[in-house]
Every structure is written in structure tokens, then in C-alpha cells.
Design a protein that fits this description.
The structure is a single chain. This protein has 205 residues and is an all-alpha fold. It has a domain at 48-129 and 167-185. Helices cover 57% and strands 2% of the residues. The protein has 7 helices and 2 strands, in the order H-H-H-H-H-H-E-E-H. The protein is globular.
């Protein structure tokens, strides 16, 4: 069933629902509360976290499908059953998955390097509630006063947690990787930059 497209001055229902939930969660909707923007920095950091996690999850699922396809083509049920292969691939953590994907010629070296970088950024975003906490720890270890630490995640020598870097570098890069994986997955003609040229569409099970 197709979703009805809203009019020019209409806010789509899913967008309104999402915004309302975020406003409620962070307390921004409490108009009579003088402290309703107390969580503004958490909100800002969580927006960056959302972008990183979204790319990581969507790309990882596509890579996982290619790895599974490589393991089962040609199938060898005499050694490992279909179910065993499913379990094996499902239980790989992100770095193990990328290492195996490179060894199975799913990813090119460039694709592997960029996704290892994305995985490291994802780890920082998912394992630290406040995205500057690991920077504080590093400064303490170096006997440097933490002071007021601006959240920072390194991305090609720049701070990822800035709108310019996210919009101009991070999103275009990982959107390109996702698009290539998606195109190859569904048999759409696309140049192989991050994926091995021997990859073909994944069987729809």
C-alpha cells in the first residue's frame, strides 16, 4: 500500500510522529518548563550518532548478505548445512564480518578500509553515552586537565561532529558505499569501486 503524499504545506505523518517523539523524549515539548532545553547537547550528539548508526547498520546488513552468498555458492551441505551457515554469518561481529568479506573478495581494499573506519566510529558512538567521554579519558591518561571538552570524533583528520564534515564528507562517502552495495545486491548496473567486480546480485530467498 502506497503512502499518501502530503500537500505542499502539509507535514507527512511519519515525520510529525518522529519529531513529536523526539521532542517528548528530550523534554523540548514541556513549554512551561524553564529547563526544557537542558538536554540540548545530548540531542545534538544523538543526531550525529543516529547518522553513523544508520549507515553502519544498513551497510553491514548488505555486506552480511554477500558473505553468506559467498559461503553458500556453490552450496556444500555435506560439510555445513544452510542453517549452520546462517548461524555462522549471523554471529560474526562487525570487524570479523569485514575481515571475512575482504578475504572472500566481497570488498575491495578501499571498501574494506572505509568500512573498518566506519566501524571504529560506530564503536565510539555506541559505547559512549557522551561522545566526548573517551576524549576526557585520553586527556586524563596524558596528565592533561580535561577542562571543557568539545565532543570530537576523528574522521580523516577532522572532527566528524560538525555539520560541514558530516554533510560534505561523511554522508556522501557512505551513501556512495551503500548505493553500490544496494545496486549490486539487486542486480542494478553500477561501477565497482568498493565491492569486488566478481560480485553479482544476491538470490532473493
Amino acid at each position: 500500500m502506497l503512502t499518501r503524499m502530503p500537500g505542499a504545506d502539509e507535514l507527512p505523518e511519519p515525520v510529525q510522529e518522529g519529531r513529536d517523539l523526539l521532542d517528548y523524549f528530550y523534554g523540548f515539548s514541556q513549554e512551561d518548563d524553564l529547563d526544557r532545553y537542558l538536554q540540548q547537547e545530548n540531542f545534538r550528539q544523538d543526531v550525529y550518532r543516529l547518522i553513523v548508526m544508520n549507515f553502519h547498520l544498513s551497510i553491514e546488513e548488505l555486506v552480511r548478505s554477500f558473505v553468506f552468498e559467498r559461503l553458500t555458492s556453490p552450496p556444500d551441505p555435506g560439510t555445513f548445512t544452510y542453517e549452520k551457515n546462517v548461524e555462522f554469518v549471523y554471529n560474526l561481529n562487525s570487524r570479523q564480518l569485514l575481515d571475512l568479506a575482504a578475504r572472500l573478495h566481497v570488498l575491495t581494499k578501499l571498501g574494506y578500509d572505509e568500512l573498518v573506519k566506519l566501524n571504529a566510529i560506530r564503536n565510539k558512538c555506541s559505547h559512549h553515552w557522551m561522545l566526548h567521554s573517551f576524549t576526557v579519558k585520553e586527556k586524563i591518561k596524558a596528565n592533561v586537565e580535561p577542562g571543557d571538552i568539545a565532543p570530537q570524533i576523528d574522521f580523516n583528520g577532522q572532527n566528524l561532529l560538525t555539520p560541514e564534515v558530516v554533510k560534505d564528507q561523511f554522508i556522501p562517502l557512505y551513501a556512495s558505499i551503500y548505493l553500490e552495495l544496494w545496486a549490486v545486491h539487486y542486480g542494478v548496473d553500477h561501477e565497482h569501486v568498493y565491492t569486488d567486480g566478481t560480485l553479482s546480485l544476491v538470490r532473493q530467498l
